[in-house]
Amino acid sequence: MKLAIIGCGNMGLGHARRLETLGHSVAAACDAFPGARDEFKAKYPKTQVFEDHRALLEKSKPDAVWICLPTFLHKQTVLDCAAAKVHAMIEKPMALTEADCREMDSAMRAAKAKLMIAFCRRFDTYWGKLREVLVERRALGKPVVWRHIASGRPPRDWFLQKDKGGGPFMDGCVHNWDFCLWTFGAAKSVKASLLTLSEHDALDTGVADVIFESGDRTTLNWCWGLPTGARGANDQDILGRSGVLRFSLPDGHKPKGFNAETMGGFHISRGKDQVEVFTFEKNDMYVEEDRHFLECIAQDKEPVCGGAAGIAATALAERVFRASAAPGI
Ligand SMILES: NC(=O)c1ccc[n+]([C@@H]2O[C@H](COP(=O)([O-])OP(=O)(O)OC[C@H]3O[C@@H](n4cnc5c(N)ncnc54)[C@H](O)[C@@H]3O)[C@@H](O)[C@H]2O)c1
Predict the structure, then answer these.
(1) Which of 69, 156, 286, 290 to mutate to test the pocket of ligand 1 (most atoms within 8 A of CB)?
(2) Is the residue at 311 inside a domain?
(3) Cα(15) to centroid of ligand 1, in Å?
(4) Which end of the chain offers a freer environment for a tag, N or C, measured as fewer CB atoms within 10 Å?
(5) Domain range enclosing 188
(6) Beta-carbon contacts of residue 156 (< 8 Å; ≥ 6 apart)
(7) Whose CA is nearest to atom 6 of ligand 1?
(8) In a shared domain, residues 164 and 65
(9) Residues 150 and 116 placed together within one structural domain of the fold
(10) pLDDT at 119 exceeding the cut of 90
(11) Lowest model confidence (mean pLDDT) among 55-59, 179-183, 194-198, 250-254
(12) Atom 31 in ligand 1: which residue has the minimum CA distance?
């Protein structure tokens, strides 16, 4: 299979490395900026490098591409892939509006080309274990209340531009939105109060509270508007009637044979000195994500996170923005 990377920044380089781990070379790559092209060429000298994706599609004729561009460029690139009947893995979020996501999904379906959204948590043993504990074992009871506080500054300005990256409640939280929709079902109600702290125009700070069909709930209190390098709070826990899940292993509670290099874990505190520990073998979720996409193409299967998942997650982010714009009482 002939593979190509569109956008040679952080994620483009990351996927090229994972594909190499899986025994695949990248036949072609493109980036609009010479520095990124040079860096890619230095690492992968045999790759044919282009300035734009249309030239790449036309001249290199790949079977599948990894789209690793800033989010506002995802839609047109996917439509061009559909026109060329090329399979596409798109970095998350799929696009900045539900309408754009639907157009992309329809075009790829009409072209009979595979479309996958890079919701990497779905391939991570860490998040897989958490889902098993919450859903299959119901280890906290029902409903659960997942609280997540995060603060910082994204690495490049486009993440904070409303029409390019959409800010944290679109770009970063889309991982949470997808994981929760997958784990708890559709969103029943949404409340939000967001504002802009940075010099850019995306809503970068505030609280979003979502209740799902299952009755489970998540409250995200995020800020991406801090000055670069400033450190705020970053923590999360999940509350339930039978305890609280913390994303760590407490001292003295690591099971026998626990190897921190290869294993991870979290725990539920159920009362004084009552701790239940859960462990898992670590993996590289990006390798597994790329493996899944390659398998879907080879075996003509639907990816577990195709267009429908991308549409649902972006739609939820848009609901958060609409809820924030609604008048409070
Ligand atoms: N799955 C994850 O964990 C994860 C993490 C970070 C980012 N992302 C997503 O991946 C995507 C890319 O993010 P990134 O961190 O790699 O960004 P980045 O800024 O590091 O890379 C984007 C690259 O696209 C190039 N580019 C910009 N305009 C272009 C154009 N018109 N034609 C060709 N190339 C162009 C830039 O030069 C840059 O090299 C985004 O959708 C982002 O949300 C996903």
Answers:
(1) 69
(2) no
(3) 11
(4) C
(5) 123-283+316-325
(6) none
(7) 11
(8) no
(9) no
(10) yes
(11) 250-254
(12) 32
